[in-house]
Amino acid sequence: MLNKKILHAKQINLKEITSLLVIAPDNFEDFLLSTPAISALKEALPPEGKLTVLIPEKLKKIALHSSGVDKIICFNFFNCLFSIFKILFGGYEILVNFASDSLRSIVVSAICPARAKVAYALKKETKIYNFFHNLKLQTIDTPQHRILKYLNLVRFIGANTYDFTPKINISEEDKKYAIDFIKKNEIIQKDIIIGIHPTSLNESKRWSINKFSQLVRNVVEKFNARVIIYYHENEKKRLEEFMHVIRNKALIPDTTDYLKLAALSTYFTCFICNETDFMHLLSPFTNLIVIWSNTDPDTNKPAGNNHEILQASDGSPDSVPVSRVTDAIKKHIQIPS
User: Fold this and answer.
1) Collapsing DSSP states into helix, strand and coil, what is residue 64?
2) Average pLDDT of the chain?
3) Is 2 among the domain residues?
4) Given 123, 155, 187, which residue is the final one in a domain?
5) CA 133 to chain centre
6) Which H helix or E strand runs over 87?
7) 144 and 276: one domain?
8) Mean per-residue pLDDT, 280-296
9) Beta strands 270-273; 193-196: pairing state
10) Scanning 54, 69, 311, 331, which has the fewest C-beta atoms within 10 Å of its C-beta?
11) Which domain holds residue 97?
12) Partners of 288 in the beta sheet?
């Protein structure tokens, strides 16, 4: 098969592939959801096979701590010539494109000399994106979970897994951050620790600050719980508003680093949020209670069996009562009789 173009997916034997390049999604949430597929690709390669992931700079840390990733290429304007050199002379036999038809994705697909370039076919055959991929899987109109979307693309060339949880590894440094946070705030082993994300900026998919504040009062009064708040960097104004409402009856980590927050979540009894990237990040590490909007949970729910989706009949997150969330939390708490 040396230097010969691969014309059909059945010609690919991943056990003979020693170098594979994945163009990863360029946002955090989709990258997380692609990690089961990336891990499946790596497991399908021979022991000496190397898997390289091409990512934007902002995803560097999470990519370096993802299972199956041997090397990364951070492709951006400032280092594009160096990245192009790596792509041209990296010896990649197969390219798998998880990204959309962005300029980055098209450029890399165009210049990579791989014998097989695998992607989903876009609806319009005239699109230049389709031209640069010689093995295209047709998209289906039926809604499917994004994890399955990425997995189906690698199944197309012979990789597979039935483990859908995001494949993220927590470093010793991040574990130490979590331990230090627990010690600093005098949290002990018997404490009930509840994590929440009350600061989402998506108005159509969020529970109100008032509902979250009532929940904090409930879990503190009923369960004597310690509450830890997660937030994104662009949510600080809403965080200040929330802390004022609850009179600072919660703890706030001094970081928005995803992997440090993932490490800290391993101490939680459960975590309550809306449909945000936190539910995918934390799904391998703690129990989730997700207050859902009017979308179909089957297309985006967190992977795993210990998570609960709470959805009101009218599809409004704010129609989910505080008592229902409190009852869901209670299921995870062992209360002495």
Assistant:
1) helix
2) 94
3) no
4) 155
5) 26
6) helix 80-89
7) no
8) 97
9) parallel
10) 331
11) 9-155
12) 271, 307
Cα distances (angstroms) measured from residue 320 to each of 152, 203, 274, 317: 34, 15, 11, 6
Q: Are residues 176 and 126 in the same domain?
A: no
Read off the pLDDT of residues 201-220 as tens digits, 9 standing for 90 and up: 999 999 999 999 999 999 99
Residues 268 and 193 placed together within one structural domain of the fold: yes
pLDDT value at residue 173: 97
Residues in the chain: 337
Domains contained in the chain, number: 2
User: What is the rounded distance in angstroms from the CA atom of residue 99 to the CA atom of residue 68?
Assistant: 18
pLDDT of residue 337: 43
Rounded to 5°, the CA angle 153-156-159 comes to: 85
Residue 166 falls inside a structural domain: no
For residues 152 and 37, is the Cβ–Cβ distance under 8 A? no
CA-based radius of gyration for the chain: 22
Burial classification of residue 17, based on how many CB atoms lie within 10 Å of its CB (0-12 exposed, 13-18 middle, 19 or more buried) = buried
CA distance 120 to 136: 5
pLDDT in the model for residue 1: 43
Instruction: Report, as an integer, the average pLDDT of 114-128.
Output: 85
Report yes or no on 160 lying in a domain. Answer: no
Range with the poorest average pLDDT among 40-49, 133-142, 265-274: 133-142
Burial annotation 57-94 (CB, 10 A radius, 16+ → b, else e): eebeebbebbebbeebbbbeeeeeeebbebbeebebbb
pLDDT at 125: 58
Confidence of residue 335 (pLDDT cuts 50, 70, 90): low
Distances from the Cα of 195 to the Cαs of 50, 200, 251, 266, 268, in angstroms? Answer: 37, 14, 9, 10, 6
136 with 91, same domain: the answer is: yes
